[in-house]
Amino acid sequence: MTMKRHTSRTVRAGVAAATAGVTLAACGVGADPVLHPELSDEDVTISMNWWGADARTQQTIEAIELFEEEYPNIDVEPQYADWTGYWDRLATTTAAGDMPDVSQFDQIYLSSYAERGALLDLATVNNILDVSDLDPNVLDTGRVDGDLYAVPTGATTNGILINTTLFEEYGVEIPDTTSWTWEDFERTSIELSEASDGEAHGLSPFGGDSFSLTVWARQHGGQVFDENGELALDPELLISYWQRTLDYIDSGAAPSASELSETLGLPLDQSGLVTGSTAMGFIPAGQFIAYQSAAPDFDYTLANWPVDADTEEGFQYLKPSMYWSAASTTEHPAEAALLIDFLSNDTRVAEIFGLDRGEPANPAFWDAVEPLLDEAGRESLAFTEAMSEEVGDTPPITPSGASDIEVLLNRYYQVIIFGQSSPEEATEDFFNELGDAINAAS
């Protein structure tokens, strides 16, 4: 299928990104950027960095080859790793002043890198990089202190993944998920656990990730961080978040602590939602295709979170899947911006990536991708489109110093489920540790 290519080259903002709990040395910060640099006619080599599994790597290399065909004087040197190895290596190269020219970034690290000057202000390359077609609300998530440092690839809400095959197999009816309550959710999960006679559990609980914590807080009128970069979470909301998991374990709706611990950190294709040991779970909705692809013998569907009497409207939000950013130390800002523009606007890239980097932030990418999607892809896209009518404002960005929030949540989650600490005690320790990290970075 021939798609119309987007070739506009005007921009208004800047890209950048940040890494996990890293102290960036002065040598990792670039000099004052050149305003509106020009593309070189000479041969240029730039580096591009990303994390992901083999499928993403192959897709990205294909996109790079397409870019190099379009701009034959620019050679792109690929660098990639898994999630953990990626951030460790990026921290090291950035501190050494050798950050890759273009990098894939995550929201929890954006502020840490931007505030230390490691990322290029993309307003300086708005003669090359065009972000005018991106959803302004999604684009604004790439800003730190008003300046754009990162261009989002896409965005997603949080949702409940439901294995409809297991519900049919065990004869349990799924409630109306357009209006279900937390009571419905737990009752149905218990019913499935009992009907399976120990073969499966109704749900895999939350407790160890900042995305679900943020949605939980927003559903109850709170937020995790405020606009000033301070920890704004009501301790009672974190206590109730972790207590909910304990309640699910105690009721039999969820697996035991030891069973849950065994699955922590496993690849998606080894998770209980894929193996069939749990029937429902909290996931970024953009991962729906990955789950369905990993378990072709199961049928899945997506649903919004359950609610209760005091649920706030607009508690869901569009979380950026990931970003493209450029290093402030790059010797080739024009070429780095050109690559980001290509990845963000050329619809041939959309055809290659599909929904791997989230439901696209660029509407033109939606049009390019939709005809190529299978049933799972269409359902994922339809869910995000429907949810976009219900989402609230995007919450404040994770502040500098708080990029280890995922590590802390996971650690205290395990301590709690094994009964080594109560939710109240763990909450106090969590607040002290994360608060100290934020204060140290300020």
From TrEMBL:
Pfam families found in the cross-reference section: SBP_bac_1
Alphabetized UniProt keyword annotations: Signal
Keyword Signal: yes
UniProt signal peptide: 1-31
Protein name: Extracellular solute-binding protein
